């Protein structure tokens, strides 16, 4: 018996990730993009309704299972509230949410009281695997210096990347002695104990690279990931959307859904 595809609305449809999601979903049978939302002009390569307002689209569509959102923090806050009001699950990969005036993290928590909500700073399976390795290295290498470096394309808004922040939290969870995030260095500034160095590079069209360096005891360990293209993130986000549809309200982790 054929299984009905999970019905998606993609926001930020003319953005880099929005385009990639629509393109990638077109090759899959487990998900179907029934509508696309774009506030900026551009061609949406979807055989789907194209709208400018999520609220109106969710009212018009017969059934939507999941909103998939890769936009900007203020849009994510707004879209999470709208999705929850319509009883639709919300999957978002938007980064730069921490400390933003629109309180997108509060909006995600509020939405999760009535619908399933998943936010991941990185939807690649490689980063999900790397996180386990980083926590293990951080626990096994006490007193080693830790430096995190990320590189992204020159259009990226937020720094450091959401992934870098997630990896730093993973290190910090095993190394409570590391209490200071040192963003770059300049002039006379020797390394202090308790620091994690954080370095953000922006250049050309680099999709996304992350490295966590552990150094001490006359050795270095470098754990790194490089995304070959945005399809890597799109596949993961669509896997998450397919897995979260129909679940109970609450906050979900990408790493948990991968194991289910
Ligand atoms: N979690 C993950 O795996 C990944 C996360 N990202 C994140 O996804 C987000 C989007 O990235 P890109 O697609 O490269 O950006 P982009 O700039 O190419 O596209 C952003 C889209 O959001 C829309 N948008 C921006 N502000 C808006 C607003 N206030 N209201 C409605 N729509 C709005 C724009 O019109 C555009 O279509 C960023 O936060 C980025 O860091 C990107 C790649 C992977
Ligand atoms: O903006 C991007 O491009 C990316 N953003 C995410 C982040 O901030 O970590 C994930 C990925 O590295 C690409």
Automatic annotation (TrEMBL):
Reactions accelerated catalytically: (S)-2,3,4,5-tetrahydrodipicolinate + NAD(+) + H2O = (2S,4S)-4-hydroxy-2,3,4,5-tetrahydrodipicolinate + NADH + H(+); (S)-2,3,4,5-tetrahydrodipicolinate + NADP(+) + H2O = (2S,4S)-4-hydroxy-2,3,4,5-tetrahydrodipicolinate + NADPH + H(+)
Domain Dihydrodipicolinate reductase N-terminal: 6-123
Presence of the UniProt keyword Oxidoreductase in the record: yes
InterPro entries with a match to the protein in the record: DapB_C, DapB_N, DapB_N_CS, DHDPR_bac, NAD(P)-bd_dom_sf
UniProt: (S)-2,3,4,5-tetrahydrodipicolinate binding residues: 153, 162-163
Keyword terms, alphabetized: Amino-acid biosynthesis, Cytoplasm, Diaminopimelate biosynthesis, Lysine biosynthesis, NAD, NADP, Oxidoreductase
One biological process term in Gene Ontology: diaminopimelate biosynthetic process
UniProt-annotated location(s): Cytoplasm
EC number(s) per entry: 1.17.1.8
CDD domains (alphabetical): DHDPR_N
Enzyme class at the top of the EC tree: oxidoreductase
Domain of life of the organism encoding this protein: Archaea
GO molecular function: 4-hydroxy-tetrahydrodipicolinate reductase; NAD binding; NADP binding; oxidoreductase activity, acting on CH or CH2 groups, NAD or NADP as acceptor
Residue span, Dihydrodipicolinate reductase C-terminal domain: 126-258
Entry function: Catalyzes the conversion of 4-hydroxy-tetrahydrodipicolinate (HTPA) to tetrahydrodipicolinate.
Complex formation: Homotetramer.
HAMAP family xref list: DapB (MF_00102)
Protein name per its UniProtKB record: 4-hydroxy-tetrahydrodipicolinate reductase
Native source organism of the sequence: Halolamina salifodinae
């Amino acid at each position: 018996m054929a299984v009905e595809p999970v019905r998606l609305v993609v926001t930020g449809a003319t953005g880099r990730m929005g385009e990639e999601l629509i393109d990638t979903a077109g090759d899959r049978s487990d998900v179907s993009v029934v509508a696309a939302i774009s506030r900026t002009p551009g061609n949406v390569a979807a055989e789907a309704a194209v709208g400018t307002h999520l609220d109106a689209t969710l009212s018009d569509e017969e059934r939507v299972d999941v909103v998939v959102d890769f936009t900007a923090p203020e849009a994510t806050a707004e879209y999470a509230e709208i999705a929850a009001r319509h009883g639709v699950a919300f999957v978002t990969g938007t980064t730069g949410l921490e400390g933003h005036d629109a309180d997108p993290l509060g909006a995600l928590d509020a939405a999760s009281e009535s619908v399933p909500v998943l936010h991941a700073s990185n939807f690649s399976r490689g980063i999900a695997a790397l996180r386990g390795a980083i926590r293990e290295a951080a626990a096994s290498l006490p007193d080693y210096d830790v430096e995190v470096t990320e590189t992204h394309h020159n259009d990226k808004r937020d720094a450091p990347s959401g992934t870098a922040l997630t990896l730093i939290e993973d290190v910090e969870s095993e190394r409570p002695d590391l209490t200071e995030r040192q963003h770059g260095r300049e002039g006379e500034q020797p390394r202090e104990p308790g620091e994690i160095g954080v370095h953000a590079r922006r250049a050309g069209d680099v999709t996304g690279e992350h490295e966590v360096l552990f150094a001490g005891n006359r050795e270095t360990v470098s754990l790194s990931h490089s995304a070959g293209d945005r399809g890597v993130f799109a596949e993961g986000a669509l896997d998450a959307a397919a897995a979260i549809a129909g679940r109970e309200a609450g906050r979900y982790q990408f790493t948990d859904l991968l194991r289910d």
